[in-house]
Amino acid sequence: MKIISKNFKLLAVFLLVLGITGCSDDDDGNPQPTVCTADAGTLTATASSVSLSGGTATISATANGDIVIPANYDVTYVLTSGTNLVIEDAGANPSFTVDEAGLYTIHTLVAETSDNTDANFLDLSVINFGTTTGGDVLGLVTSNNLCASLDVTGAPVQVTFTVVDLAIDAGFTSLAAALTATDLVSVLQGDGPFTVFAPTNDAFTALLNATGLDLNNLSADEEALVTNILLNHVIVGSNITSSDLVSLGSGYVNTGATGPNDANLSLYFDTSNGVVLNGQSNVDTNNVDLMATNGIVHVVNEVIDLPTIATFATTNPALSTLVAALQYADTGTPTVPYIATVSDVAAGPFTVFAPVDDAFLDGTNGILAELGLSGFGEGTGELNAATTDAVLLMHIVSGNIQSSELPNGTVGTLGGDITADNTNFTLTDANSRVSNIVTSLVDIQAVNGVVHVIDKVILPAQ
Questions:
Q1: Around Cβ 168, how many Cβ atoms within 10 Å?
Q2: Which interval of the chain is the signal sequence (predicted)?
Q3: Within a domain: 185
Q4: What is the DSSP string of 306-346?
Q5: Does 32 share its domain with 72?
Q6: Total domains present in the chain
């Protein structure tokens, strides 16, 4: 609302001027002040907050019965917007329809606005809606020494268009139904900001058909599951635009969903070919950056599943050799059925130190070159399944250990002890080989564990 556009001192003057102005002559012909009895009184908003629906919202107020209207004076209700009290509309009733979110205030104005021959005539025709402010009205009153009264405080109403309102307005009925079934409506009507990846109705139908979930008849466990799935589409505390994602290229963000120890789950995005989330859900580039008062919405074509360790291993191309190692170890007699385990939402939780591709393949630092091996296989000069199994076990710790919880000292992996330095973020194996934890790629949280990326393969004791 564009409150008087000068300063707060002018606002005080405004109130005084509107309360006592006008004059008359005494018996000697000298001008004498006349007490102005006009009093706009006060208003109470029908609702302090309303939501846009179908693109509009009606806001209204009720007079509190303390208005004083001098003879021949008129009552006009004035709608202003923003903190500068920009005048948007005026009428005979304290009810207005608006089509944009924001802060509005309904004021009462008591003034002579009909008789242009009256000394106190206030000419409202000079008001340009959307431009004229309370400061401009102040100028009219003070320069013409008029008797008038305006309830400057008025009845404020916040008009919102939350991400929930946007979803409903855009026809995402399945998302709206899921939010209602899980009591998440009030959460996403909060202050935010929220970045929401909104699945289409078809995407939700596919999920419900595949899982057999009935949003109208959820058990407590099912409701918890659906709640977490929905929150896996929400980034809390940020407005992330499509251009932000594209400029980043690829990376991880935390969602509102939670995993082991209530740690927030990660979401991997890759913009090398459109915008793909966790390797499965594509952002509709024709339906992005839909703005709400408490966030931003991007439409996606699939419901984003709760991620597993396998999700992050298989979607990030920098970890493709690790995936190949897991797959090859499974061809032998693995200590752990790797692919099945890291894909199992009920497994673990585990902490995985994940070597990047260069840790395996780079000619200078890669373990295959370091050991004089050509690749994975059972032939001479290849890393066989049994040895691959032993190497992989050195990268897995039982439990969900985030980077902030990394101990300083001995860490027991499934394959043997290593030494962690939580100051320098390094891991040292029994062969005194040092792996650096990539600090920009830690705490990649899945439902069955957490991944920290490292730059060197950890070996069993030689």
A1: 18
A2: 1-25
A3: yes
A4: PP-HHHHHHH-GGGHHHHHHHHHHTTS--SS-HHHHHH-TT
A5: yes
A6: 3
Q: pLDDT at residue 20 above 60?
A: no
197 CB-near residues (< 8 Å, 6+ apart):
233, 234, 277, 281, 283, 297, 298, 299, 300, 304
Coil vs helix vs strand at 16:
helix
Provide mean pLDDT across the span 5-27.
Answer: 37
The letter for the amino acid at 140 is L
Q: What is the pTM of this model?
A: 0.81
| 1 in Cβ contact with 85 (< 8 Å) | yes
Q: What is the mean pLDDT of the chain?
A: 90
Cβ-proximal residues to 379 (8 Å cutoff; 6+ apart), any chain: none
Domain end position, chosen among 129, 158, 187: 158
Is residue 154 located within the same domain as residue 228?
Answer: no
Q: Is 461 inside a domain boundary? A: no
Alpha-carbon distance values, 75 to 15, 62, 137, 419 (Å): 17, 14, 16, 80
Residue 462 lies in a domain: no
Residue 111 lies in a domain: yes
392 and 293 in one domain? no
DSSP strand pairing (276-277 vs 264-270): antiparallel
Q: What's the Rg (C-alpha) of the chain?
A: 33
Environment class of 206 (CB within 10 Å of its CB; exposed 0-12, middle 13-18, buried 19+): middle
Q: Up-side HSE of residue 17: CA atoms within 13 Å toward CB?
A: 19
